[in-house]
Design brief:
Blueprint (H helix, E strand, L loop, with lengths): L10 H26 L2 H8 L3 H8 L2 H14 L12 H16 L2 H13 L4 H9 L4 H15 L8 H21 L7 H19 L4
Helix pairs in contact: 1-2, 1-4, 1-6, 4-7, 5-8, 5-9, 5-10, 8-9, 9-10
């Protein structure tokens, strides 16, 4: 392995190692759940050490969240056009978020969080507070920009984003975890459109 001065791996090698660790962690979490997945086994599968995994991700909980976010980032396309109406941008991003979260792997990851939250409250806290999920980032940016421009009435864009997220995701995710049939594409789009329209009705500017 080529290295930089001081023995540090080059950026490309560091990125490859991170991807390898995430792939090994994804396989372990999906197979064994959170509590039974072993960081030692994940490190061995990635060809590195347990210490390296912790140095890179900080904790098992944060590694789990990063695996989830990596899966989600793969399922998001380019950001919506800045010139599009607020409603259209929110529908586009929310539809991508719903499609991403209803992917079978993400349904399993979310069910792991729900099933093990009581034993591992830090995992649940990180999942609830994490802001790097692309859907959250993009919805928050759209709402904040619209509020700043006076297009909607909103004093707390993050709170509004979390409300919209719950409107879009909660019921379909619960149904998926319970084993309901896959939600058809047209039903997903209608669900998202209705959720965004109800949300927007509550944020209309008084101007």
């Amino acid at each position: 392995m080529r290295s930089r001065r001081g023995g540090r791996p080059e950026a490309a090698e560091t990125a490859r190692l991170g991807g390898t660790i995430l792939a090994a962690a994804e396989a372990a979490f999906l197979k064994f759940g959170f509590s039974k997945a072993s960081i030692q086994a994940i490190a061995a599968a990635a060809g590195t050490s347990k210490q390296t995994v912790f140095a890179r991700f900080g904790s098992k909980e944060r590694l789990f969240i990063e695996v989830s976010n990596a899966l989600l980032r793969e399922r998001f396309s380019a950001e919506p056009s800045r010139g599009a109406p607020v409603r259209d941008k929110l529908i586009e991003v929310a539809a991508q978020a719903l499609d991403a979260m209803l992917d079978p792997k993400m349904v399993m990851m979310f069910s792991i969080i729900m099933g093990e939250a009581k034993r591992f409250p830090e995992l649940a806290r990180l999942a609830d507070e994490d802001s790097t999920f692309p859907g959250r980032e993009r919805m928050l940016a759209i709402i904040a920009e619209a509020a700043a421009a006076g297009e909607v009435r909103c004093t707390d864009p993050r709170r509004a984003m979390l409300m919209l997220q719950d409107m879009v995701l909660s019921s379909p995710l619960r149904a998926a975890i319970a084993g309901a049939d896959d939600m058809p594409a047209d039903a997903r789009r209608n669900w998202v459109t209705d959720a965004v329209d109800i949300f927007m009705d509550g944020l209309r500017s008084s101007n």
